[in-house]
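Worked example 4.2. Below are the chains of a multi-component assembly; read each line carefully before continuing.
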Amino acid sequence: MKLVIGQGSCGIAAGAGKLYDALAPLLANSSTELGITGCIGMCWLEPIVDLYDGSELKARFVQVKPEDAEAIAKAAETGDLSGVQNLIITEDDAAFLEKQTRIALRNCGIIDPNSIESAVAAGGYGAISHILKDGVTPEDVIDCIKVSGLAGRGGAGFPTWFKWNAARQSKGDRKYLICNADEGDPGAFMDRAVIESDPHTLIEGMLIGAYAIGAQEAIVYVRAEYPLAIKRLTAAIEQAEAAGYIGDNILGSGFSCKFRIKAGAGAFVCGEETALIESLQGERGMPRLKPPFPAEAGYWHEPSNINNVETYANVPWILANGGEAFAAMGTPDSKGTKVFALTGKIRRGGLVEIPMGKTLRDVIFDIGGGIREDKAFKAVQMGGPSGGCIPASLLDTIIDYKTLSATGAIMGSGGMVVMDETTCMVAMAKFFLDFTAKESCGKCVHCRIGTKRMQEILSRIVDGKGQAGDVELLEELCEAIKDGALCGLGQTAPNPVLTAIRYFRDEFDAHIRDHKCPAGACSALLRYTIDPEQCKGCTLCAKKCPVNAISGSVKAPHVIDSDVCIRCGQCKSVCRFHAISVG
Amino acid sequence: MPQITITINGKQCQCEQGATILQAAKANGIEIPNLCNDESVKVYGACGLCAVEVVDDGKGRALPKLMRACSAKAMDGYVIRFDTERVLQSRKIALELLMSDHTGDCQGPCRMNCPAGTDCQGYVKKIANGDYHGAVELIKEKLPLPASIGRVCPHPCEEQCRRGLVEAPLSIAFLKAFAADKDLAADTYRAVCEADTGKHVAIVGGGPAGLTAAYFLRRKGHAVTVFDSAQKMGGMLRYGIPAYRLPKTVLDREIDEIAATGVTLKNNITLGKDITLDQLRADYDAVIVATGAWSAMSMRCKGEALEGVVGGIDFLHDISSGEGTAPDLTGKTVAVCGGGNTAMDACRTAIRCGAKDVYVIYRRTRDEMPAEDIEITESIEEGVTYKFLTNPAEILGVDGKVKQIKLQIMELGEPDASGRRSPIPVEGKFETIDVDLVIMAIGQVLNPAGLDGITLTRKGTIEADENSFLTNLPNVYAIGDATNRGAGIAIAAIGEANRCADVVDSALKGELKPYRKPFLSTKTVTAEDLADRPKQNRVQMPTRPAEVRRHDFDEVNLGLTDEMAQQEAKRCLECGCHDYDDCKLIRYANWQPITPERLAGVRNVHETERRLVAIERNNGKCILCGLCVRVCDEVAKQGILGLVGRGFTTVVKPEFQNPETIAVCKNCHACVDACPTGALKFLGNE
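Applying the procedure described above to all two chains together yields the following structure tokens:
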């Protein structure tokens, strides 16, 4: 028997580390092994412990606490699960995984990310070994990727084979293959999960890419905010080197490739490929003008190819199973599968990989279980600050690049932030503009000042100080910034605002014209009042009010001075007589 | 290099293969706006002003995205435009965004407030340096009569002078007169005229407006004839302003200089009598009407028709046209009705004609008087008596001659539309004084004789477009006191004349371009901002003693000495941007109308600091084009500067914020030279 604890960042954050520490001494002298794995994607159920008999999963325990350690150890020892029934995953929850098709995530939460043997046992390095030993040419590899229809999973959806081919055709003394693991969209954690859970698949995918374009060096640019990913990837690179998959004359083929990691310093814009290259070179992270494209003049102005983590993670599977197998999934426009990070007001938040062509409803309701606390679904934000929101009326939109673009949102890298009726869409748009304005590198005028001005206009709207014409001004700025900004960050920054206006114009008007927030979320527009019938004059609210906005004598109804009130809501939360209402 | 052919804004251009669109345009004499590009450093692409649209890529397809001309390569067959609606909108927003965070004064408040836009700060600086000729050259770009105007102008420039926030405004008008006098004495200024165009312009009226229009049109190479009904040119400057303020010899010299440019001056010719508008329209390529406002307004009180009641302007005109022979008012009592500058000229002239008592009848108080305060002071010194809060009710006469004036006593009520408290009659309270002469100086209106066919406003002035100066008649323009709002100050008429000359010039060259008020960046400065400036008193103009000057028409002011003028000029705070004339940002900001106010928001800090050894940096004017950083690195090979911070608050600072890097600076000022705005200033190799 073997107990495996999910130790992705999500698991550790939920207490998987403490759980491991609790289980380890209990199993010290037992025949039951204790191991770890990465993230299975069911983040809302962490910490998760899997019980294996050999390679067969006997039971999955969820939301396990350190105090459950003894019961689980006992169950593993005895094989008697009666004492831990309450910890076993429900059928409903288990269906979360069963409804998915896992390619990029195929090993995540299953293998031990710290062990190359575990990866190899799951088929790792099989594809690159076949390529190098059986005379598969770089052109064959590119052809296979072309047949698969794989497109860049970082958000832009550019055909992967085309970039590889361009880099291959480019002349240069050296060529570089770069992995963009600077995952920065708020609410997106697909890449982190892959690196933390299955680093060898990423390495293998990159090796295949490096072979295809003729690169001598592969670099993973990973954000420094992912320490666990860096740690596991560093160890994996060392293991792969020791095993002969990385370095000179790999597997005796004559193909050589070095690997290294570069930790990014926290700038969102460094996820933009040309800014990433600048940062790699030790320059300030600011985008370059394109053309020339990186395939022509990238890192150190040599031909370079940049793909995102998920793109590379698909590659070994495609080479092992054939491009046709991958292309068999999805829609005519978009092939294969896509990983989404499901967050927000969703019941089952986590990682979901599904074939292209499923609908948003499939993901949010069928897999994600719908909205928490049975509230009404309002919209889903796709593509983070570069994407847009899609309203409930478009829930049956199918997931492929073209169809999503038509809604004004984008496929994006996979962030899906689910919003319910209590989310104010103006505040949502402002949140994203706060983000992009803060993350603008400051180089081009449209983005540097334009996003700042948009953010200011949105701020005044949520503060109830919007002016007639503000929406039109926002739209005008949006169009100009899309047209005029230098890089993808700026060009796509208006998307959240444009889609919010497109689908929720009435909310903007309500804020500006009626000084009301229909979702009741914008504190500046709320008004706290005390119902004199209900108020018993207990004085508790007045005592708790941090700004002394409440007055009244003992045992007499109290009054809130709205001009002084900062709408913190403390009075309402302490009132025992439900005398305080917000409107 | 092989050549390729592209089309830019409809013009076919040849360029080398591999050239960027910006380079191709430049090689063909086409300017595509750009702020962050410089051939000496690598392409950067920050400003976005060089956006162009490729409407046809040579294969019949339009490229979907706007291209940055600085980086996009010109391809054979490209059809490029940078005047499409999409491009203009993109550039407009970029400029509005830049300007919404651009804090500085393009021009000093003096120049901004001068109706003729004279570069006060510029000529004051030249005077401070003793370059009087240079000062006059600068003044005469806007105003051909500086010695005259410097003496009589009510100087709106000084009202806004920020030195006033320290102690007192600069004596700008007198400095102008000083420099002009110096230059007249040295006789060095010669206007340079462009080659003759063969076009001929008729100007009716030889006052400040007509003469100014003539001067500037002549400089543009057009033939100009000025017609005036009086014996001599000068209009109100000659016949409305007494010689003790503006000696006729000064005016004569300045008019001579205008004549020296080749302008034909024809006097004693009256429109409607000696010539007609139709005739002028037939004989000339353009006609400018600048006839002024010469009819004194009536006070609408009984007794105005009595002998001994005259209009202020008529009184002054008669004296001036009489070549110095003033009427003898010895022992007489004179009442001057009105509180403006004409009233001042009339009352002080009456004193000089020997009047025993001169009363100024004004219905409000001194605080509300439109006249210059110095004029009131000097008139009191000369013996004028003010009867404030009185209004003529009736002029009483005996045998058809003036005998008395009955004054209604007034009090001040609520402020009116002009912001001044309005006078209200105190019922039943009157005062009567014995007078021999009543001068009505409450304003002048146009005499419409000879203006047949021209549409007039309800006020009886000529209706002229404010930007094209066109009347209802084709090719007939109108400016000055005769138009729209009516009589104003000379410098306002001169400003209109200057702008009108540009419009007429454009029309004569084929396409009429109406005047467009330029967009200028301004900032607010308070007394606190200037609290650290040491106080320096304003130099006072020396005058002849009142006891002496009240008996003659010689000039009251004695003029400034060199020392006084230079001392005064050095008080200038130099508010306007040193780089205004070379600033690319403001030039492009005026390529199309922009309204940055609609994008107003938070601004970056805008203090000026002496950053490098001899370089001053004003962050308020920095547009983060990065040229200083890049030039220091790529051209000067120093790498001293870097961009610090991110997004909106990014700022240029020594690389890694390490002040020690400054020691490397060799004062090569390549950064200053590269700066497209006035953010950097080289202070010299001290």
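Take a moment to check your reading of the output against the notes. Residues 495-513 of chain A form the longest helix (19 residues). Chain A has a mean pLDDT of 95.
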